[in-house]
Design goal:
Layout: H1 6-19, H2 21-27, H3 29-42, H4 57-63, H5 72-87, H6 97-101, E1 113-114, E2 120-126, H7 128-136, E3 151-160, E4 166-171, H8 173-183, H9 188-196, H10 205-218, E5 223-224
Antiparallel strand pairs: 1-5, 2-3, 3-4
Helix pairs in contact: 1-2, 1-3, 2-3, 4-5, 5-7, 8-9, 9-10
Length: 226
């Protein structure tokens, strides 16, 4: 694949556009093409394939002037990557709410869960989910009510919904810590013990943990660990 061939360049730019449509919409055709050509020069495809061509775009935007002056651009790429990875993740059987409702109270303590491959936990320092949402709702950015970048650090969950569309929402640091405990295979009882180290009112921990679990099950974020 000759990188100087115009047809090849167009194919690679089209691949970037397909992977990062909201970035393309935000900065416009001309600026996107200039950025894409600079990116191609620094990160030429290793093989004669466009597959994975854009995987270094976030690093490129974080390190190359003038893109470093707008750090929200790299985070928009990170967010779009998470959305794409989530929707394309392998299928897994998730726990249904009715299964959770049928459990006897004394069965909860030894419950152990798995997180589905479609769940991605991402830390963002800017309001790029809101920017992405505004961009995705319009065809023409000019005159559209797209938020300006605002520093707003926090955790976000990206996941595939039951209807196989992509969902995303913010998460508290406590919920992030709880999900990490689930990832490491802790039972519900052990999860509660971990949360006791993170909250002042330890008597509220069982209610906090059960609320997390019910929410995760309703959103298709848990499978039972066998």
């Amino acid at each position: 694949m000759s990188q100087s061939d115009p047809d090849t360049v167009l194919k690679l730019l089209d691949a970037l556009h397909a992977d990062y449509p909201m970035l393309h919409k935000l900065i416009g055709d001309d600026y996107f093409d200039v950025m894409g050509c600079r990116y191609l020069k620094k990160y030429p495809p290793a093989e004669n394939s466009i597959v994975g061509f854009g995987e270094h775009l976030s690093d490129f935007l974080k390190t190359e002037v003038p893109y470093t002056n707008v750090p929200s651009l790299a985070e928009l790429v990170d967010f779009e990557s998470a959305l794409r990875q989530s929707i394309n993740a392998a299928d897994t059987d998730v726990m249904k709410p009715e299964c959770l409702h049928s459990l006897a109270p004394d069965a909860w303590s030894q419950l152990a869960f798995r997180l589905p491959p479609s769940l991605i936990i991402i830390k963002l320092d800017w309001n790029v989910p809101q920017i992405w949402a505004a961009l995705s709702s319009v065809n023409d950015v000019s005159g559209a009510d797209v938020p300006e970048p605002v520093y707003k650090s926090g955790l976000w969950l990206v996941y595939r919904k039951m209807d196989r569309t992509t969902g995303w929402r913010s998460a508290t640091p406590l919920e992030g810590a709880a999900l990490e405990s689930v990832y490491h295979g802790l039972t519900f009882s052990e999860l509660c013990e971990e949360l006791c180290n993170l909250v002042d009112d330890v008597e509220s921990v069982p209610q906090i943990a059960s609320t997390f679990v019910r929410t995760w099950v309703e959103q298709g974020l848990l499978s039972l660990r066998q």
